[in-house]
Amino acid sequence: MENHDNTGPWPMLVVAEAVSGEPVSGEPVSGEPVSGEPVSGDILGYAFSGAFRDKDAYRYSCETTVYVAPTVTEQGIGKQLLGDLDHRLRAVGAHRAYAVIAVPHDTSVALHAVAGYKHVGTMDEVGHKFGEWRSTELWECRLA
Q1: Computed from CA positions of residues 77, 82, 85, 90, in that sequence, does the dihedral angle turn out positive or negative?
Q2: Of 84, 99, 123, 132, which residue has the fewest beta carbons closer than 10 angstroms?
Q3: d(CA 125, CA 128)
Q4: Where are the domains of the chain?
Q5: Of 3.40.50.1820, 3.40.630.30, 3.40.1570.10, 3.30.1180.10, which CATH number belongs to 12-142?
Q6: Predicted confidence pLDDT, tens digits, the chain (144 residues)
């Protein structure tokens, strides 16, 4: 029996900053996030991806995460970040992207629905966050 590493090139980071509002991106090196350009303004949000699971069979799938600063929500930044990240994932051959959303989180659910993600499952009380058990929803985007 062999243990195969997940070899997908999925670690990516996309950042939106206040100076330009445009995303900049790059790949983390040695676990450290690096953007294609220096971030000189306040960070408005970021999106990143990583391996969906560590097993070799899942190497073409990735998990995505999006964060938008609370002061700039509902301005299209999350949509822009997630769209740019998904575009870059397609370019490197990713097959599926998955978002794991702690619910309730209507804003994140709406963002992923608009971006073309589909709800494919719910895990009941799978995590403990902010002093209570939280369920998560799994949202899938077909990249290829």
Answers
A1: negative
A2: 132
A3: 7
A4: 12-142
A5: 3.40.630.30
A6: 233 444 555 566 666 655 444 444 444 333 333 344 445 567 888 888 888 998 989 989 999 999 988 888 888 889 999 999 998 899 888 999 999 999 999 999 999 999 999 999 999 999 998 899 999 999 999 999
